[in-house]
Write a structure and sequence with these properties.
The protein is of the alpha+beta class. It is built from 14 helices and 30 strands. The protein folds into two domains: 582 residues, no CATH class; 123 residues, Immunoglobulin-like, CATH 2.60.40. Helix 3 packs parallel to helix 14 and helix 9 packs parallel to helix 13. The radius of gyration is 26 Å and the shape is globular.
């Protein structure tokens, strides 16, 4: 989440201070010092991580991909559309309800219970306010879809041990999404929360109205219960399909460096600061932040193929840290941004399914022409996205080729395979997660940004690779520290970046960022892979020095105070040691944790009950006007670049307008076909980067095909046509097999239409 605090919160400040004054409260009065409590209720148990026996038997892997486009009209992630006039008043009203709860001096147990009840009441209000055809709540509706998000899942098994590695193309992961997915698949697969390593891409242009915590609604839109059910089932579908695809497999792993397209968004700056506190302390000018070229450039690859000859590819998993934020604000289209496009290019080039895991992304962005003057990618355009994704695919493809050509990287049939998770509480000073992002004062944030008060850490060892899941936006210094404590190729613990121009006392402060415990030598791995946004979201994690030297929104969103980074790193070391055969891990908890988890159970019961409510809403979707469905209204015709909003494109397109279904139906597929004698063959299938799908809200649809973006070369005199395939809600229940949630009565009908043939010459391209 790379934007500063939204401007409307400045207007809210007076309201907050009024509430604080009338309540006579102070957040510092909350007594939340932890007591030792390892025997807690719920799924945490005694939280001892017992070492697994080394997994026996051959490696088996299954892979699946499930498209998750959601509905046109939804707000695309953080940057897609602007706020409505009603958003400020709506959020001010919600804040007025929240402030007395989270900052009212209540004991933690009582505060958490009141927050739980507040959430349940808001969810019910949002459910009652749900209207057919409307998929944006606090923001203007999205214009359509560029590249539909999806879910990719790997299920991995050796003997009795089975885990899953999943990446869902969503803006923010949430603990409640993780919990609900586990509930949906555990009975059929044996995969529970402890076995599902679930990462969100942090794509800033993917729909996210499913976020149950109000702290995100000002960026990603209010809570839509339909999307929560939709995305959890899509993730579950991918897991079920991957589990059904298990087959004997081999693994190769490799690490290389890639620094072609990134830059550090924080950058360097100077402040006046004294080495010691006190009125007489002499202040000095020092550098803070980081150089633009300081970032974690590790590119890690895991390649799975079949064990039996001929060895067929199963999946290529690669990890690289960078914020998916290449599109400009207000662009209006749901998009997969560069992670999904890079995966797609690799699939096309290598004929291998590719899956991006989000690495260190808390301070790494697409370059803004600062490290490379030819790479102006940050929040730029769809054209920049086109160049960026191809450049990234070039780097991953080159690394993959290098891995296959390296005789020292031999495929493993029985790699080391371990898995462990642990839920830890907060630091001694901040046992409750807190944030100053929303109100300018630090407030407790369970249910506001987080699910529970816990931090779930996840470690999965696969051969030479060690996946390390953290529910946050991990910054470069923390990533380097974790790798230096768990990797085999490090001689000392990384404490943080030091500007060479700074005085010695700054270096001494940076040296206090982290403790120095490391994993036992035989428990370390060659390739520790730090993964952001896994199993939940707790904000950013900056180092102690970055937390203390100045105020900034990453510091405000570091949820457990200045010791958060070391707290997470130290517990990851303990988790890996325990997983690899060391001493069992024990964690102390505050005495109010049972109340916290009881509230989580209440909320999860509510989400389970949503299924029936959404089925009821689906039954009430009105039928479309089937007499006008599939009628071509205009085109194919040329649309010049100067007639297109430059946020969407700066090159001409071929357009087609037609009458289709309402937004309550899944978005249609648009295919451009080329004539070959009497036959027609598809050359591109959208929506995607080359074929945007737009909707005006009145059953009128538009396809925009950009030949310049299409990977298939088209000659000026090639005979082409559009073909569109979609569904609409009819007034004839029982006419199709239907879907148990989205079309329970089987009333959805399919439609197709074909345009008149055309050539690019005829349209003067």
């Amino acid at each position: 989440m790379m934007l500063p605090r939204p401007p409307f919160y400045l207007a809210v400040a007076s309201l907050i201070f009024f509430i604080l004054a009338t309540a006579g409260c102070d957040s510092e009065e909350i007594d939340i010092h932890p007591d030792a409590a390892t025997d807690v209720a719920g799924d945490v148990g005694d939280n001892e991580v017992d070492p697994y026996d080394i997994a026996s038997g051959p490696l088996e892997v299954g892979y699946a991909r499930v498209a998750a486009p959601w509905r046109v009209g939804a707000k695309p992630g953080q940057v897609g559309t602007s706020a409505t006039d009603e958003m400020e008043s709506e959020l001010m009203s919600r804040l007025a309800e929240l402030v007395p709860i989270v900052n009212g001096g209540l004991p933690p147990a009582e505060m958490l219970e009141q927050m739980t009840q507040w959430n349940l009441e808001v969810f019910e209000e949002e459910l009652e306010a749900t209207e057919h055809g409307e998929y944006a709540r606090l923001f203007e509706p999205g214009l359509g879809i560029e590249q539909p998000p999806d879910v990719k899942a790997l299920v991995i098994r050796r003997g009795d041990l089975k885990t899953a590695v999943v990446r869902a193309d969503i803006y923010l992961m949430h603990e409640f999404i993780h919990r609900r997915v586990a509930t949906l698949v555990e009975a059929q697969t044996g995969l529970g929360r402890d076995e599902i390593f679930l990462a969100g891409t942090h794509n800033h242009s993917a729909a996210q109205p499913s976020h149950p915590s109000p702290g995100v609604w000002s960026l990603a839109d209010g809570f839509d219960p339909r999307h929560f059910v939709y995305i959890t089932h899509k993730i579950a579908d991918a897991l079920l399909a991957a589990d059904a695809d298990l087959q004997p497999a081999r693994l190769r792993a490799m690490r290389t460096q890639y620094d072609e397209v990134q830059f550090n968004i924080i950058g360097p700056s100077t402040i006046e600061m004294a080495p010691e506190t006190g009125a007489d302390a002499e202040r000095e000018t020092i550098f803070v932040g980081y150089p633009r070229d300081y970032f974690d450039a590790d590119l890690d690859l895991l390649y799975f193929d079949t064990a039996d000859e001929p060895h067929e590819p199963i999946a290529l998993v690669f990890s690289l840290g960078m914020h998916p934020e290449s599109l400009p604000s207000g662009h209006g289209l749901i998009s997969g941004d560069f992670p999904l496009h890079t995966e797609k290019h690799l699939r096309r080039r290598l004929d291998i399914p590719a899956m991006w895991l989000p690495g260190t992304l808390g301070d790494i962005e697409p370059d803004r022409a600062e490290n490379n003057e030819d790479h102006n990618f940050w929040r730029h355009s769809f054209g920049a996205l086109h160049q960026l994704s191809h450049t990234l695919a070039d780097g991953v493809e080159a690394a993959f080729t290098e891995m296959l050509d390296d005789p020292s990287i031999e495929p493993e049939l029985e790699p080391i395979f371990r898995n462990a998770t642990v839920d830890i509480g907060g630091t001694d000073d901040f046992p409750l997660p807190t944030t100053a992002y929303l109100m300018g004062i630090r407030i407790p944030s369970p249910r506001v940004l987080h699910g529970s008060s816990l931090i779930r850490l996840h470690a999965t060892r696969l051969g030479d690779a060690l996946l390390l899941g953290i529910p946050a936006e991990v910054t470069t210094d923390l990533s380097f520290n974790i790798k230096s404590r768990l990797g085999t190729d490090y001689d000392e613990v990384h404490q943080g970046y030091i500007f060479p121009e700074n005085p010695d006392w700054v270096a001494q402060r940076v040296a206090q960022n982290f403790s120095t415990t490391t994993a036992a030598p035989d428990h370390r791995a060659p390739f520790p892979i730090v993964t952001s946004m896994v199993n939940g979201y707790m904000g950013y994690i900056v180092s102690r020095w970055e937390y203390e030297n100045r105020e900034h929104y990453r510091m405000n969103m570091t949820s457990h105070g200045p010791d958060t980074a070391d707290h997470v790193a130290r517990h990851l070391v303990e988790l890996v040691d325990a997983m690899m055969g060391g001493a069992p891990m024990e964690v102390d908890y505050p005495d109010w944790l049972e109340d916290d988890l009881a509230g989580v159970d209440e909320l999860m019961d509510y989400f389970e009950g949503l299924e029936e409510e959404i089925v009821g809403l689906s039954r009430q979707i009105p039928a479309a006007d089937d007499e006008s469905i599939a009628a071509v209204l205009a085109g194919p015709q040329r649309l010049d670049a100067d007639a297109i909003d430059d946020r969407l494109a700066t090159i001409p397109a071929v357009t087609l307008h037609w009458a289709g279904a309402t937004a309550d139906s899944p978005p249609p597929t648009v295919i451009v076909e080329r004539a070959d004698g009497d036959d027609w063959h598809p050359i591109t299938r959208g929506p995607d980067l080359a074929t945007h799908l737009l909707y005006d809200g009145q059953q009128t649809w538009q396809a925009r095909w950009f030949p310049a973006y299409d990977p298939v070369e088209v000659l000026p005199d090639d005979e082409l046509r559009f073909r569109v395939a979609g569904t609409f809600r009819s007034d004839e229940p029982g006419s199709t097999d239907g879907h148990p949630i989205w079309d329970p009565d089987g009333a959805d009908q399919h439609y197709e239409l074909t345009s008149q043939p055309f050539t690019l010459d005829e349209l003067q391209f």
